């Protein structure tokens, strides 16, 4: 089996691996609190977009990528603004999420012309990572007496931070492809693995919410 | 201009055009690299579009031919950007360049005939990724961000752990404070009873004194005055005792300044034994325990932080009473809960032993009892910090040692050794 085949299999698993947390989330939906329901909605939307992409036979992949970035950003802004206790920060997150959407539109139609969502992706990843880190800080410092491993949003946020941190290496994708396809494929495999881990974290978080009730 | 002159001029122009066209034609160009993941691929040399090759596609293969005379295979070629002079070759029709660095190149090839115009093919090899000015700083920033996030969470977890420990220490202190308060309340009750009784007696004596004065019985007045004075002295004595107990409590509740002062370990241990015992009795009226105190005489004062050491004693006595109480609850016949307090003077140290005939410590647990947050008590009854803090106070705070000697189901004995100086 060639490296490119292994990489592609992993990418498929990572892409459609979202089915696992979506399945668990839908099964346990009555146990989920508001933030977890928002997270589940985001995953469902992601699955719908993936399936949509499959339906159009990957003909307008780039357009879908912009949609991914936009929806992910909005869902995360919604999720974290509902759990961040500091009112001002919560509002800032909510409004900045909305503010970034026209920027993605601007990039999509006027700057990159629906060809490469690198900029939108980078902005989205960075934004999501920052708010997830902020929330994790709040969680770690405010819920000192609670077992952090029992907090569903701890797992989701940790997964998001790790996946986005690794995923932001994407800004080097073009020069790396030019330098060596092997290295790029290896990075892609690693990124797929991290994405699978993130979906694992989502699944565990949904599972926890049921156990804790 | 006549017709003949025009024809001559036209022929001349055509001949000139013929000679300015290259005789050699580059028939194929292939690029690739020496890595397994990329094969050589053809490039159309006549496309006219700018050719840009990736850094690792820096192996180029050129094939050329003399378009006028294909059998003629003497050529001169040159790669501007690499070769300084023309390279002549006979009986050749191809040339390969390998490991070209990033940059702009033009491949020129011509016949060896003088005046021949060379055929050319221009291309650019992209620079090495590491040679791009923006790559290293961006990669550095990225790695910095990556490392920064990891370090941030590492510090955050450490900080959280510290906060958690502080809270638990505070909780432990509050718990010990509650036990101390219960013991002290019980202790204070005793002198207060005396104060109340002697005050009542004083009131009665005063009434009797008034009557004796009214009756003019001087002798009776003197006797009553003596009794009144004695009663007041007792009130003062017991009031002072209560005051001393409260002072002790305040000292315990105050944050330790860490200042060492000479203290009598026998007195300190005995005081805390009584406080712990009274505390237990105040919570469980049915609880009774035999206290066997055997203290070495003439123990010299030892320089210690009395508040900290008091906390150690209180914790060890509380554990002792807890374990004998637990054993008592099992309803063993003829079981007499007993706690021993012994002190011995050794050469340069003082040894204090606190022993109980409670449930003892299982061997598997024995190695963990001084670890922070380890407790065998039910949830909510112990923080698991008592013995850990005691161990730190004795060893790190006073340069002594704290050891345990036990037989499961029979006894547990804690041995504190403190240096005299």
What's this, in brief?
Chain A has 213 residues and is mostly helical. Chain A has nine helices and no strands. Chain A has one domain (3-209).
The appropriate CATH architecture of the largest domain in chain B is: 2-Layer Sandwich
CATH topology of the largest domain in chain B: Heat Shock Protein 90
Q: Determine the number of helices of chain A (DSSP H or I, runs of at least 4 residues).
A: 9
Number of strands of chain A: 0
The percent of residues in helical segments of chain A reads over 70%
Which CATH class of the largest domain in chain B? Answer: Alpha Beta
The protein's oligomeric status is: heterodimer
Number of domains of chain A: 1
The largest sheet of chain B is: 5 strands, mixed
Order of helices and strands of chain B: HEEEEEEEEEHHEHEEHEEHHEE
Question: How would you characterize this protein structure?
Answer:
Chain A is an all-alpha fold. Chain A contains nine helices and no strands. In chain A, helix 3 (34-55) runs antiparallel to helix 4 and helix 4 packs parallel to helix 6. Chain B has 421 residues and is an alpha+beta fold. Helices cover 46% and strands 22% of the residues of chain B. Chain B has helices at 3-20, 135-215, 218-253, 265-283, 306-329, 363-366, 386-398, and strands at residues 24-32, 41-43, 52-53, 59-66, 75-80, 87-89, 94-97, 103-111, 119-125, 261-263, 290-294, 302-304, 338-345, 349-356, 401-407, 411-419. In chain B, helix 2 packs antiparallel against helix 3 (218-253) and helix 5 (306-329) runs antiparallel to helix 7. Chain B is rod-shaped and about 180 Å long. The A-B interface holds A 3, 129, 133, 136-137, 140-141, 144-145, 161, 165, 168-169, 171-172, 175-176, 178-182 and B 35, 37-38, 54-56, 126, 128-129, 132, 135, 138-139, 142, 145-146, 149, 152-153, 156-157, 159-160, 163-164, 167. Chain A: The chain crosses the membrane at residues 6-29, 38-58, 64-80, 92-114, 126-141, 153-172, 184-207.
Describe the secondary-structure layout.
The complex is a heterodimer of chains A (213) and B (421).
Chain A lengths: L2 H14 L2 H9 L6 H22 L5 H23 L3 H25 L6 H25 L9 H16 L5 H7 L1 H31 L2
Chain B lengths: L2 H18 L3 E9 L8 E3 L8 E2 L5 E8 L8 E6 L6 E3 L4 E4 L5 E9 L7 E7 L9 H81 L2 H36 L7 E3 L1 H19 L6 E5 L7 E3 L1 H24 L8 E8 L3 E8 L6 H4 L19 H13 L2 E7 L3 E9 L2
Parallel strand pairs in B: 3-9, 11-13
Antiparallel strand pairs in B: 1-2, 1-4, 4-7, 5-6, 5-8, 8-9, 10-12, 13-14, 14-16, 15-16
Helix pairs in contact in B: 2-3, 2-4, 4-5, 5-7
